[in-house]
Amino acid sequence: MAMPVSAAADSRARGINTDLTIVDADIHPAIGEEGLRRFLSPYWRSHYDSIGRLGYTGSLMPRAMPKAARHDAWPPDGSLPGSNLEFLQQQLLDRWNISYGMLIPLAEAGNQINLDLGLAMARAVNDWQIEEWTSQDARLRGSIMVPYEDGALSAEEIHRVGGYPDMAQVMFVTRTREPLGSRRYWPIYEAAQEYDLPIAIHFGGTGGHAMTGAGWPSFYIEDHAGMAQSFQSQVTSMVSQGLFELFPRLKIVIVEGGVSWMAPLMWRMDRVYKQLSHELPRMKELPSTYIRRHFWISTQPIEEPPAAQQFTEMLSQLDMTDRLLFATDYPHWDFDAPDRALPRTVSKSDRRRIMGENALALYGLPVRR
Hints:
Strand content: 5-15%
Strand order of the largest sheet: 1-2-3-4-5-6-7-8
Helix content: 40-55%
């Protein structure tokens, strides 16, 4: 069993600033085939082995690296990147003195066309997170996997584990079968709000549709860089459907979707709302008001304009530095190191908020040293 080690002592030895609270909003643990089978019930294990899963294919593009992982993220025992807790502790949590990390498994539970299998897989991944990760390291928090294309089944799983103190949020991917403002997803929001759990919407999925708004791309870069289109569509849907009047305590976290597009999206939505608000009976305020009140955004992959000052200008236009969450995307190839993710032009106060204080407030976490 992997045991926690002193992150503060390790980081002091490496000369890393221990006065800055760091919360990583995007860590990907890997359950693997054998791990999933071990946590499935006997019936669903037999189903999984004999019939298999049936889901949308997702991206068919080859990744930049095997398993989309950093070269150095493969544990010495030959297991998958993100599957060995002790190695992850050493390489990420202890190396960078991270106070808390949000686990976001990229399992295929929500992508299953067989929704009962999807629920069984979600339960297996949730139990695995609790037993092998969050109970073994007090710094880690889990994300509740759900078969999100069925609102009732998803709400059932939220009620099963939503009260567990180390499950911090409910997870979606950004490419769903319908826009996330649709009624089919409302039972999930109702259950999440009941447990005061944010909804995390992460890069990925297909929902049975092409990967971009213009159809199927030819290259991985089109898929990777074009994912922001889906996030913009989801934000537009959730705001336009009046979700935040129906669920006024609902909190949404955009994970691994970029940052800079949010400001012009708010400008465009506000302008159009002033002309078309008559068709949106549940909306009572400007779209930008709902976005700034109910949305948080992870920094990874952070945009890198040619001049550092342009990054500062982007933050000013966004006006959401109290809603930005630092993320590494460990163990993936485009990992953002805590000492390099933000340019030096970011003020000390904004840096403190982005690197950890905003996440502490969002997830209700105590300060740890």
